[in-house]
Amino acid sequence: MPDGSFRPNLLNSLVFLLSAWMQLVTFAANYAGAPHTTPLTEHKLLWRTLCGGWALVLLAALDAPLPGLRPLLRSYLELAPLPGALAPTVSGLSAADVANDGLPGSYYEGLGDVGGLGFRAAVVGVLVLNLAVAFGIERMARKL
Hints:
Number of helices: 5
Oligomer: single chain
Structural class: mainly alpha
Order of helices and strands: HHHHH
Radius of gyration: 18 Å
């Protein structure tokens, strides 16, 4: 491999989560639906696939609060642990993670408490906001 072996870090994990979420939102927002085709919620296979994808990305963004699911998701999706939910500092990252990333510890300073919400809550908020804005814009565009 020309670039070496893949090592998950915070940046590539977030890029993966955001791009997967945006692809799902794009499919849902651009689905024509009635009157041209079956409405999205009645197209069972597509609707269940989208909901399953959204649930998977949300579980990964929340760092899978279900005990047995956390290591499975991290290894299967090759994600780095995200900073803690409500911690004032990043407690979920060890010195080994920082060393693997090649980034100084100051890079992670303050990520554990973004606006008092916590890093994971901020990421989930961005995902949900993206979903709402995309559907709102699509709805306005269809009215024109």
